[in-house]
Amino acid sequence: MTAQGRRELGGAADLEGELAESRAREAALAEILAVISRTTTDLQPVFDTILRNTLALGRADTAVLQLRNGEVFQGVAGMGMSAQELDFDNQLRERGHGVAVRPGARTTVTGRVAAGGRTVHIPDVALDDDYDPWVRDHIDQRTLLGVPLLREREVIGVIIARRRAQSPFSTREIALLEIFASQATIAIENARLIKTTQEALERQTAISKVLSEMSQSVFDLNRVLESVAMNAVRLCAADNGSIAQLKSDGWRLVANVGDIDQESMERNWGNQPIEANRRSLTGRVLMDRKTTTIVDALADPEYDAGVGIFNVRSLIGVPLTRGDEIIGVLILRRQEPKPFTPEEIHLLETFADQASIAIENVRLFDETKDQLERETATAEILRVTAQSTFEVQPVLDAVIASATRLAGAENGFVYQVDGEVLRMTAAVGEKAELMREWQRTNPIGANDRGTSTGRAFSEGRTVHIPDVHADPEYRYWDAQKLGNFRTLLTVPLTRQGTTIGVIAMWRTEMKPFSDKEINLVQTFADQAAIAIANVELFRTVERQRGELSRFLSPQVAALVTSVEGAKMLEGHRRQITVAFCDLRNFTAFAETAEPEEVLGVLREYHRFMGELIVEHQGTLEHFAGDGMMIFFNDPVLVDRHELRAVRMACGMRERFEEMARSWQKRGYELGFGVGIATGYATLGRIGFEGRYDYGAVGNVVILAQRLSAEAKAGQILVSQRVQAAVEADAETTSVGDLTLKGFTRPIPAFAAESVKMPTPARS
Fold first, then answer.
1. 121 FRET partner, CA 20 to 30 A, in 48, 272, 549, 652?
2. Share of the chain residues as helix, strand and coil, in percent rounded to the nearest 5
3. Are 332 and 315 in contact (CB under 8 A)?
C-alpha cells in the first residue's frame, strides 16, 4: 500500500472514530434527557447517569457531584471512587474543605469554581502551589476538572472529574462536561419548581381546608383551631404545635397537635400566668408584638419555660390579633435546633390570620346570639307586661327566668319588701321550691347585712360576693348549706329612689359574675321595677275611673243605662274618626332613663293629652305606655267629628312642644306623631267577665294606627277622606301615596298643618 493510501486509510479511521465518539456523546445526552424527563423530585438517578457518562466519555477515573447548602458544598453523588477515596472525601468535609467559597479561595477546586463562577482545570495538582497539601497527599489524583452548575450566574453545585495520572482534559471533554453540568442544573431547577409547586399546592389545599372548616364550624371554634395547628405543624415540618388563646379567665391552650405530653402540659402550662417578658416564647410575642423565633432553647440564656415539657429546641410564636390587641399565639416546636425558613414563617402568619378571623367570627356570632337572646327575653317581658295590666306575678316570673338563664346562674329569686322583711315572690331553678318553703319560716330581714339580699336592699346597691366563704360579713349559713351556693349576685329594684325589692341569684361553684352579666341583671331589675310600678299605676287608674264615673254627664249615663245603650254595648256599626298618637324615641328613652324618669314623663304626657281629649269630646279607647287611641262620634254623636279629631291633634302637638322644651333641658329627646282616619267600624264591649273595655274594630282603626306609625316627629298624618272633610277649615299638604302594612295598594296621605277656625259648638 502506498503512503498516500495509508494516509487516506488513517484519515478514514480518525473520521470513523470521531463519528463514533459523536454518536456516544449524543447517546449519553439522550440518556440523561430521558432520565430527566422521567424524574420529578428524585434527582439521584440523574446525578448517577451524568457521573457514569462523565467517567465513560470524559475519560475520568472518578467523578463527584457537589451541591451548595448555605456556605458549604456537600457531595450528593460519586462514581469510580474506592472505599478509601470515599473516606478521604468524608475527612475533607470534616476538615471544612468546600466551605471556602469566597473569591480567592484557591485551596480546593470547589473553592476556585465557587469563587470564579467558571470551569477550573488543574492539569497537575503536584505543580499547583496553592492546592491544599493535605488533599494532595491523601487523594490519588493528578489532574482535576471542576465544572460549575450555574443558575442565574450563581454557583449552586460543582461536577469534579479526576484522573489519577497526569493527563489534562481535552477541550472537547471539557465542553462535554459543561453540557452535563447544564443538564444537571436543568434537572435541579425542574425538581425545585415541581417541589415549589407541590408545596404551594399543599399550602393552598391546607388554607382551603381551614377556610372550609371555618365556613362549616360556626359553633365549633376548637375544630377550626385544631385544623390550623395541624396543618401548620405538617407543612412546616414541626414536631408539635399549639394555639394559646386569651380568654376571660386568662391564657389557655385551646389546640394541641403532635408529640405533646398533654397531662404534663396542662399541669405546668395551664397554671402559669403569661406576662410580657423574655422567659417564655409567648411572653416574648406579647412583649415584641410580632412573630418571634428561638433557634435553640437550650442555648438561650433567657428562656426557661417548656424545654422539659415539650422536649423542644427550636420554637416560633406568631401573634393572633384583633386590631391592636393580641388575642392568641400560634406556637410551633421542633425537637432539633432547626430554624424556620422565611417561607415557613410567611405561611404560619397566614394561618395565624385565619385563626384570628375564626376567633373573631365566633366572638361576633356569640355577641349577636347573646344580643338576640337579650332582645327576645326583653320582648317576652314586654309582652307579658302588656298582657298583665293588673297582675305583676307573670312579669316577675318572666324577669327572673330570663335573668337567671342569660346570666348563667343556677337559681334566681325576686324578693319584695313587706314591712321589715323581704319575702320571696318569684323563684326559678332546681332549689327554687326548697328555698321558697324554707324562707316562709325564715324570712330575711330587710336590713340584715349578714345576707347579700339584706345588704343590697338596705344599701340600695348591687352586691356581688364571689365566694361566700371569703366574705367577712356573711352569716346566712343555714341557707348556704341548704342551697350549697358559693357565688352570689344581688341587685336592688328601685322606684323613684326607693328600694322596693331585690333580684338575687347564685352559682354553686366559685365563679364570679362578669361585668356584662351584672349589667344584664341590672337591666332586668329595672324592668321588674317598672312592671311593679305599672301594675300599681293601672290599679290606681282603674280606681280613679270608678270614682270619676260618678261625674259623667247625664246624657252619657242615661245612654249607658238605657235599653238602647245596652244594645250598643253588645255591638253596633257606626262611622267614626279614629286618632292614634304616640311618642317618638320613647323606647330608646325608656332603655336609658331611670324608671322614675320614664314614669314622670308618662304622667305629665297623659295628664295634658287627657285634658285635650275631654275638651274635644273624644273617647279614649285605651292607652298603652306612650300610645293612645281616641275615637269621635261614639258613644255620643258629634258633628264634624273629623274636624274635632284634627283640632285635638293640633292642640296636642302645641301642648307637646311646650312639654318637649322642658324635657330637652333634662336631656330627653322625644317626639310626637299622630295618625287620623275616618270610616265605619264595629263598636261595643270587648274583654271578658270582670274586665271589659269599650272598643272599636275595623279597617279605619288599622289605617289610623298605620298612619301614626308613619308619622314623623311633630307630624299629623290624615287619610284622604279626613282631608276631604276638613279641607275648608284646615291647612293640609299632600305627602304622597304611602305603602302601609296590611294594605294592598298605596294609600294617599296628607299632613295637617293647622286649623283655620274653632270647632263648632257641641250639638
1. 48
2. 50, 25, 25
3. yes
- pLDDT at position 637 over 50: yes
pLDDT at 707: 95
Among 56, 87, 93, smallest CA distance to 75 is for: 93
Torsion of CA 128, 52, 169, 153, to 10 degrees: -70
Bridge partners (DSSP) listed for residue 412: 428, 505
pLDDT digits (tens, 9 = 90+) for 356-367: 777 777 777 666
Q: What are the φ/ψ torsions at residue 626 (nearest 5 degrees)?
A: -95, 0
Res. 318: pLDDT tops 60? yes
Three-state DSSP state, 636: coil
Angle between helix axes 44-57 and 171-216 (nearest 10 degrees) is 180
List the grid coordinates of 129.
502551589
Counting DSSP H helices and E strands in the chain, the numbers are 23, 24
pLDDT value at position 722?
95
Going by C-alpha positions, the residue among 524, 377, 380 that lies closest to residue 462 is 524
Strand partners of residue 495: 498
- List, in order, residues 6 or more apart from 344 with CB less than 8 Å away: 235, 236, 316
Q: Among the listed ranges 54-63, 387-396, 583-592, 595-604, which one has the minimum average pLDDT value?
A: 387-396
What distance in Å separates the CA atoms of residue 707 and residue 738, rounded to the nearest whole number?
A: 9
> What's the grid cell of residue 274?
403569661
**Half-sphere exposure of residue 66: CA atoms within 13 angstroms, side-chain side:** 29
Q: Tell the residue number behind the cell numbers 279614649, with chain if given.
A: 620
Q: Transcribe 116-169 into DSSP letters.
A: HTS-EEES-GGG-TTS-HHHHHHS--SEEEEEEEEETTEEEEEEEEEESSS-PP
> Rounded to whole angstroms, how far apart are CA atoms 353 and 246?
16
Residues 6+ away with beta carbon under 8 Å from 498 = none
Q: Is 704 helix (H, G, I), strand (E, B) or coil?
A: helix
Q: Cα(560)–Cα(270) distance, rounded to whole angstroms?
A: 78
According to DSSP, the residues that pair with 719 across neighbouring strands are 749
Which cell numbers in the block locate residue 708? 301614626
Per-residue pLDDT, 520: 86
- Asked whether 491 and 462 are in contact (CB, 8 A), the reply is yes
CA atoms within 13 A on the CB side of 458: 14
Taking CB atoms within 8 Å and a gap of at least 24, the contacts of 481-486 are 482/431, 482/434, 482/435, 482/438, 483/411, 483/431, 483/434, 483/435, 483/508, 484/508, 485/410, 485/411, 486/510, 486/511
Contact call for residues 330 and 225 (beta carbons, < 8 A)? no
pTM of the predicted model over 0.85: no
The whole-angstrom separation of Cα 160 and Cα 231 is 41
Please report which confidence band the pLDDT of residue 19 belongs to, taking 50, 70 and 90 as the band edges. low
Cis before 337 (ω within 30): no
pLDDT at 357: 78
pLDDT in tens, 131-180: 878 777 777 788 999 999 988 888 889 999 999 899 999 988 888 888 88
- Give the SS3 label for residue 527: helix
Element (DSSP H or E) covering residue 257:
strand 250-258
* C-beta of residue 632 within 8 angstroms of C-beta of residue 676: no
Reported as a single tens digit per residue, the pLDDT across 497-554 is 888 899 999 999 999 998 888 988 888 888 888 878 777 777 765 665 554 444 333 3
699-723 pLDDT per residue, tens: 999 999 999 999 999 999 999 999 9
Only one residue has cell 471539557, namely 174
Alpha carbon distance 268, 77 (integer Å):
48
pLDDT, residue 402, reads: 86
Question: Which residues make Cβ contacts (< 8 Å) with residue 388, sequence separation at least 6?
Answer: 394, 395, 531, 535
Summarize pLDDT for 660-690 with one digit per residue, the tens.
Answer: 998 888 888 899 999 999 999 988 777 665 5
pLDDT at 298: 86
Q: DSSP class of residue 168?
A: P
Question: Is the pLDDT assigned to residue 23 strictly greater than 80?
Answer: no
